[in-house]
Give the backbone structure.
Amino acid sequence: MAAADIAQAPPVAAPTGTGSVGIGLHMRVAWRNLWRNGRRTWLTASGIAFSIFLCVVFMSFQLGSYDGMIDTATGMMSGHMQVQQVDYFDDPKVANRIAGGSELLRELEQSPDVVAAAPRVEGFALVSVGERSFGGLVMGVDPVREPEVSALSKQIVEGEYLPRTDSAYVGKALATNLGLKIGDEIFVMGSALEGGVAAALFTVDGLFDTGQVELDRSILQVPLSAVQSAFDLGDSVHRIVLMGRNANDATAIAERLAPALPEGVRILDWDKLLPELRQMIQMDAVSGLIIYVLLVAIVTLSVANSFTMTVFERTREFGMLIAIGMRPGGIVAMIVIEALCMWVVGTAIGAAISFSLMVGLGIVGVPIAGLEDMAGQFMMPERIHPEVSFFTLGTAPLVLLVGTLVAGLIPALRVRRLKPVEALREEE
Amino acid sequence: MTQHVVECQGVSRTYQDDAVPVHALRGVDFALDPGEFVSLAGPSGSGKSTLLHVIGGLDRPNAGAISVDGEDINALGDSELADLRLNKIVFVFQAYTLIPVRSPHENVEFIMQLQGVDAAERGERALGTLDSLGMRDLADRRPGEMSGGQQQRVAIARAIVTNPVLLLADEPSANLDTGTTGELLELLKRLNKERGVTILTATHDPMVMGYASRQVHLRDGEIVRE
Amino acid sequence: MPLKLLLQLSWRNLWRHRRRNGIMVLAIALAVTGVMLMNTLMRGMAAEMREAVIDNLTGHIKVIHPGYMADPGIGRGFEPEQGWERALADVPVAGWAQRVRVPAVIMSERETRGVQLVGVDPAQETISFLGSLSVDGEALSGAEDRRIVVGATLAEQLETSVGRRLVIMTQGADGLNREAGYRIAGTYDADSNALEKVFVFTGAQTVARLLESPAVTEVSLRLESGDDIPLALAELGAVFEDLDVKAWQDLEPQVASMVLVADFGLYIMYFVIMGALVFGLVNALVTAVMERVRELGMLRALGMRPRSVVAQVVVESTLVMTAGVVVGLALAVVCYLPFSGGIDLSAFSETMQMMGVRNIFTPRLEVADMVIVFVLSLVLGVLASLYPARRAVKVTPLDAMRR
């Protein structure tokens, strides 16, 4: 500064002398320091980017596949929720029924939470064609309402879905085993409500093929009223299957609907209807979590290592800074800000790649090729749409932000023990 | 006529420094006879270190021929140059001369290990050499625990234990006090006289020049006076 | 450069930066432990699923009629020739069983259910879960036994109990219904409720009498070792020319694919986790090289060949990796040992049953996997050192002296 400038400058009352500097200067200095060893910064930032990329991609796919699994699983048969007689879930026998089914159905349909509702009556019966017979589950459904809650009617491969009051909708495997074709008559016989014999005659009007042999071999759907009268059930039903707007709301809706239900009747959400689904998701989430924790821990260690090296190399420089009056705390802050900048670089790269990829794939979806067997077994949809949400995209960067700051802070704290004279003597 | 230990003909070396060519050596003709103790003198940037480097095969000239002990350096690859240094040429640097993770004894043994000398002989020769330089008691210290002069003496012990043809020393006294420099120079002189090691040093230090049997002055990359 | 010298130099160089290399070793160990433990769980799961499938009347190999899968029934039965098992003289077989398994309807006074009626010779069933079942009441005494054994869950659903009678209805070979009443000898408790609901056992002769057919619907074999399956398949194929001879992998493709996923899972997890680690390792190695520019230059000046410089960096990297992997594997073993007897997973029981796994879950730490991880890590250690080593070789003695 020229002498004239000093003369014009306002008088400085006293040196502030705190040895600390403003955050803006810190930022600029930290940013420049970071690029003094560009290779190291790139390597460490790439590590951060790599982990963020993996975590974001895995999490999006994981959560996306859960939604797909839930939709597929609940959409097949069970629906988002079901209203049942209290004992029916544990002991599905004909007697455990809801009396006055049609009235309850109408009430439920009026709830704004309920998008679709369909009644069902079920009973185990012997299905005979001529001399041949087979044990199976006879399911009485409402031909109009049922397609709203179950995908089974869409798996039709031949004929029509329950066009008449005596129609039967039969699995292709069962039809093959019994030598059935469209238009054949079948005789259904089971135990009715009061121990009598339930018997009815149906005509095969449609065949379905779900790909799950067990289902295709053991279930037939017929119109609700036919089963109700055959089993002496009157207006009773066994299940009222409900769909909400979104499977994730099922628990909340079930809680809202429960108080209005008559005595001896309860509502179950898909969580309870398909406990294995929830548990499978939990197990998968836990194993995913282990991987994420490992990835974050390892990257945090790499960042810590990077800063350990940085601090070690700059001992002389720090000694000099302390010697000219900078507070050790200021140096610690500078290193932590360097760590922050490192995180910004790594996250910018990792997030740019993974976010754009996930948003793109989230719209298009990814087909699961070659895993049809598993898809059937584990209730997976044919396409996974990765979930794009604050949670899936934001968690990894935020957790790593904490990790990076801690990883910078720990080696930085050693600076506070630094003796300037010794530090300056350190060989460069 | 005896063969020269070192023979340089028209040696030039040009660096590209920020797009400006720096002529470190301009057509130097130079020879060293066996048993000579020659000192290269000249101001900084005169090219003495560069000449030392090209003779030792650490750097390659842009033009000219160099032979060391009859071998044409230009014709040798990196690995062969390494072998040449291993077996015939040794360096003594101004600083940072020892391998920090090894004791003086192990430093002295190191080159013999590279040469593949067996362990018993190695140990014996290393101790013998340290002994002859009066450093037996330092043999198992860590390099960091020794003074600059002690380190430099270990470096010389390491240099001569293999009976080299040529010893190149670049500012060997730069980090030493006068007393230690004197000891070091006495040592070099003894080597030169008793073992017939040819020595070439590059230095500013008049004390070092005084010990040499011949002085060569360089200026701007050319030999100006012998 | 002698290897011993190389190792010694590298080893001491590593100790110069204890903190830095310690962190690297810790990170590698953490990664290896994590991957190994995850793999242990996956292997355990896959093994349980495989064992459960093999136990649940499938065996290693099953011989069935080609049409049986689509239309299970006595109509798809066959009569194996006496002494067919002699064809397997050179394959060690743990045992085999001939069964009649047909779909049937079972009726109590109150309830009706669809089940699988299985006619067995209890003496042969040491190869399936039937051999080790805990039965409440009495087990079947032989192929002649005319009583039935049903699952405890099924008995509950049918509201019946030991000593009472049930009516079984099924189809004969002619497609006509057969019906007969049987007394319950005992109820069994299996690992899975699904099994209890499905399988009803009685003597093979009893089913033959009911169906009026001496045929069986399946021959199930259990080998001493799963490795012999291909050989046994070939030999059985020659004996049962017109029948399907199938390995369990073909009969239960989902489980087979899960076992396969477990095989790949190790590699996927390893490369995902180690991928993140490599950045840090390369970083530490490059720093170690750049710090030693003067030293490396001096070594070159002393006559060390470029190749030896590369070797030194590679050896240092490999040593860090080895230390990390050894610690990681040791940690994995230490974490694994308390659980090697099994983990109670009843909290996840429905899923486990669905996937055919028992409530007590036994993780498996396989030596072969540890060897794979070890070898992969050495390879990775070498790969990670290539870039730093290239940097090291570029260091000339002159660079060292100019600093």
Remarks:
- The two ends of chain C are 27 Å apart (CA to CA).
